Amino acid sequence: MKGTVILACDVYDANTPEFSQEWESEESIQKMEQTILDLGYDVAVLSNPTEITSVLSNIPLDERRNWIVWNLVEGYQSPNREAYIPALCEYLAVPHTGSSAAVQTLTLDKYKTKLFLRSFGIPTADSWLVEDKNETPQGNFPLFVKPNGEGSSLGINEKNLIQNIAEWRNVLPALVEKFHSVIAESYLSGRELTIAVFGNKGEYTTTAPAFVDYPGSVYSDLVKSKENFVESLDFTVPKDLSESLITYALKIASLLGSSGYIRIDFKLEKDLPYLLEVNATPGFSSVYSTLPLLWEKSGKTYSELLSYVLDLGFQEYKHHHRYQYAKDKNL
């Protein structure tokens, strides 16, 4: 066997709080598990925090380099939730897939990510953070409001497109009450696009970008829902636009220092692309996730995708200085 892969995930549970969609279906996890087994690894699927931490801490020190945690845990509510697994693995000197805790925490915060990347010339819509349900709008209508720290289009529907002060007062309080932190931004009226970046610092490559098509005018939680995955990808992106998106995506990955993979979403306004968000923990489901579709457009298989991601995780562990403290402490 090549080693052991732990699929750390939140498998769907009917008792999951209704505001969370950050889970994986059993079908998707079973497909990932079998694909990784076929690659020659042992696989363990773990979804309980106590179980995950116990297993990792009990791996013999001299064997930890042969284990790797596939980070699918996204949790809910905490601003640190996508960093749980990377921080734990780094502290225990266990390899993991994807980016560091620092990258995960930053990119989960849409507003801070936009502020940071905009300072380096990445185009973004004008935006501000709202944490008071009685706040008045700072920009001109139309505006778009959404949770600042959620994925899977959670909390987004047609009502989030705000045309006037009456709609603002009707929609904003409930969003702030439920999600605590809301980002408000100038509405971008054009088509949405997505692109993935693979690789570790200094060795990034991108997929071809694609338009994301979906019913209606808003990419809502009904569209993004794992029970009703109805989006489609259109790869007929004009050459000039494609080149711009690839340039922006590579620059974003480098500025963030991402590892393994990220998916970046843009939206057009007057045919120019503006950054929507960076997703450092994108889904890998062969059933309902966008990133595998971007990968497979190049003619490569789902199995090759998972193999490549695992290789990148082991490479990061061998060469990145962020693991050095844990390695020294665990000698």
UniProtKB/TrEMBL annotation:
Gene3D superfamilies associated with the record: ATP-grasp fold, A domain, ATP-grasp fold, B domain
Keyword vocabulary terms for this entry: ATP-binding, Ligase, Nucleotide-binding
Origin superkingdom: Bacteria
Signal sequence range: none
Keyword Repeat: no
Family of the protein in this entry: Belongs to the D-alanine--D-alanine ligase family.
Protein name: D-alanine--D-alanine ligase
Organism of provenance: Leptospira soteropolitanensis
